[in-house]
Design goal:
By secondary structure, this protein is mainly beta. Helix content is 11%, strand content 41%. The protein has one domain (3-176): Roll (Pnp Oxidase, Chain A), CATH 2.30.110.10. Bound molecules: flavin mononucleotide.
């Protein structure tokens, strides 16, 4: 599937609807995938997004050391892999090998994109805020790419069954995106 560049002015449009994301990180020769529900766009200029990662997670160490992360947008077709990446630690398990996800080279960062996801944001860490048990990593968005056909130039086509993202309700329950309506 061909990946299409998205202008950075529309970067937030691929996570605005609050979907579950798969964040990839890499430090030295170790890459990893973590499932996250806690993500938020925080600034247009500069283009910043944030993720909240528990201090004990392996990804926390990888992101802290490498100062980079990649947000990948998965769809309902990979729900079991999403749940798996959110249930085991990369300290013990190679999640790329176990899920069968394919690594694609990023343009600006060492961490890989996940080929099977429909959208990707390459982010460099600009600030780190200590929360409670989670840390907030603020990332500057360097590049956004999406699969051909999933973005109409301005918006993700969330009403297209191929673009249905997941939204976490807790435990193993998820909701899918689907209906798009417009205000006058
Ligand atoms: C749907 C879902 C959403 C999650 N959201 C978050 C989150 O926002 N922040 C977080 O720190 N952990 C979150 N988790 C838990 C981590 O993904 C999980 O503990 C993971 O195994 C940590 O992986 P790591 O040690 O390889 O980094 C979530 C798990 C699931 C299943």
């Amino acid at each position: 599937m061909k990946k299409i560049e998205v202008p950075l002015i529309y970067a937030n449009r691929i996570i605005n609807h609050g979907c579950v994301i798969l964040v990839t990180s890499k430090y030295k020769d170790k890459s990893n995938i973590i499932t996250l529900a806690w993500q938020m766009p925080v600034s247009h200029k500069p283009k910043l997004v944030s993720i909240a990662v528990h201090k004990k997670h392996f990804s926390h160490m990888l992101i802290t050391k490498s100062k980079e992360f990649i947000i990948n947008i998965p769809t309902r077709t990979v729900i079991d892999a999403i749940h798996f990446c959110g249930s085991v630690s990369g300290r013990e398990i190679d999640k790329f090998r176990k899920t069968g996800f394919t690594e694609i080279e990023a343009r600006y960062l060492n961490a890989p994109l996940i080929k099977e996801c429909i959208g990707h944001m390459e982010c460099r860490v600009k600030k780190i805020y200590a929360g409670g048990d989670h840390t907030i990593f603020l990332g500057e968005v360097l590049r956004v790419v999406v699969n051909e056909g999933v973005f109409d130039g301005k918006f993700l086509r969330l009403d297209n069954p191929r673009v249905q993202t997941l939204h976490h309700l807790g435990e193993n329950r998820y909701m899918v995106s689907g209906v798009v309506i417009q205000a006058v």
